Amino acid sequence: MADAPKKLNHAPDPRYPQPVLGNPASSLMESGVGNCYPGLEFDLRQLDVRFFPGLTFEFLGIEPSGPDGTQGVHLVNAEVESDPIFARSELWLDALKKQLNGAAGAALGSGTWYLHSIEQHGRRIDLYDFNVFQNATLMTPYEGETCWWVIRGIEADADLTIALTQRDPTGQPTGNPVVLQGRRRRFLDEDGVFPDVYRAGELTASMCSPWTHDFRDCACQYWASNHPDVVLGPVVGPVGEAGTSQDDAAQGVTFLDWLRRRGPWRDVSAPATLEQARPDDYDPFEINLRWEELSFVLQGVETESKPDTLPMAGLRQSYPTTAKAIEDLETDLAPREFTLAMSYLYALFSLRAPDEPTAEEQRQWPSLVEDLRAVRQFILSVALSEMTHMRWVNQILWTLSASGHYPPGRRYQPVVRPLPEAMRTGATSLRPASLEVLQQFVDIERPANQLDREYAGLVDHLRETPGEFPDGLYELAVRIDSDGLQHFQKFRDAAAILSRYHLKPELFLRQMILAGPGDGSVARALQLLAGIVAATHDGYRAEAADDMPGAEASLLRARAAMRDFQAEAEALARLGIGIPFFAAWPGDA
Description:
- The chain folds into 3 domains: 45-204, no CATH class; 207-313, no CATH class; 322-508, Up-down Bundle (Ferritin).
- The strands form 6 sheets. It has a 4-stranded antiparallel sheet with strand order 4-3-7-8.
- β11 (296-298) and β12 form a beta hairpin.
- It has 17 helices and 14 strands.
- The longest helix has 35 residues, at 368-402.
- The chain has helices at residues 45-48, 91-101, 103-108, 144-152, 211-217, 274-277, 286-290, 322-349, 359-364, 368-402, 420-424, 426-429, 435-445, 450-464, 473-498, 523-544, 548-574; strands at 55-60, 72-78, 114-120, 123-126, 128-132, 137-141, 160-167, 173-182, 230-232, 255-257, 296-298, 301-303, 513-514, 577-578.
- By secondary structure, the chain is of the alpha+beta class.
- The protein starts with 44 loop residues before the first helix and ends in an 11-residue tail after the last strand.
């Protein structure tokens, strides 16, 4: 990673792989943490063991071990002379040095001390959980990693007060606390160099050795590599077209444990728990010898092949011209994102709410309420993501227009509308979230499907000519393309959760019928939807004109209408009435 580019460079470079269809942005070389810290990474927690000048701590109980008094932040030593920061002459350092050379330092020189509390800007945090009982209050020390997160939030260059106490065998603080005033240590000087107080090897002392042990076992924040846990097995069959229902197994799509021992008999679905997975994983010593057997992961999919020989690689085609890309964004991709969002919302409202199952249903199906809550959250999050994609597509369009890339005589117009075929066939585009429909949603979002290929082509087009397009467009296209795999997985999970009720779909589905365009019961809902579209349209137009106050006002208006619309749609769905989202469409005026 030491030779990785320090700045984002859209130009193709033979040294670095091109983005593969659907890969997340985090898989690109320019996004690696190694660009900031080349070579072996360090344990970020090791910086904070010396967060307070003159004191050295250690973080205990990183793995939960119970309230036995050993968790928290343990004081290792208090030494003024060995800390070079005290060579500086500043009022707060002089005062702190006096404290540590006086009674406070003498007290800390004997016994076992723990960090008790942190106070800054008048706010104090005690590093304990408090359990209040009738006759006593039990203080359970936080785990060391929890304390570390608190310490990470301390502001530099601001007055800081810490208190240290000793503990009894149960972890309860005893005796009088030692209180010190100072400031958080700054970890980098003006040249970006760590202070001399950190000794050679100290920042990596808590890491495993050799590095492959870290690669296998460490889930801590300091490990910088894009280390997959669960991946898709290779896609070995034709990819289904949108709207078809195909079984994942028939297409060779299986979620695998990436750290498993290799062999065809082990290429089975990843177990649900760490304990179940461990017997078939490389063990800590085996990984030292066999780490090179781990598969490359492209687009979330394992492969033993080079990127340019993958079946998916030939499916991506860059746009021949920017004008063609603009046409596709306006007439297909932006309307398609809107159409998918509306279709997913209709499916969401067709699901029963968690408060609808009866007591008898909950008795017979104990997980029903939580299953409904989870699936509704999955579908809502994907619908919101599709709305975000429509906004990003519009942002790409207005940026291309402002930079002179639109065809002569044309300029950006907001695109907030469904596909024409959705307006013609609203009854078939809007369907309840049955298991069959959820499987169709899975197929729509499946990696390497039509939508994924189109965005991959846009990514290629924006990358192929460095310097031609404004900054940010390439990143937006990558973000949109990267989200498809998450949508696929969420719909797949939703279908799996509800499959246990396949014999009784009425447990999760409302008996909802799509209303006609002239049905008076949905008049207010359609009026609210038209208001959302009009406000969104106005907001995009204002933002394209760099009128941020106007854009913010339109956005607030759209959000207010969205809240009312959601409440109205839920009320109608409980009555068995489905909103005809694509009826009497107000258009883009």
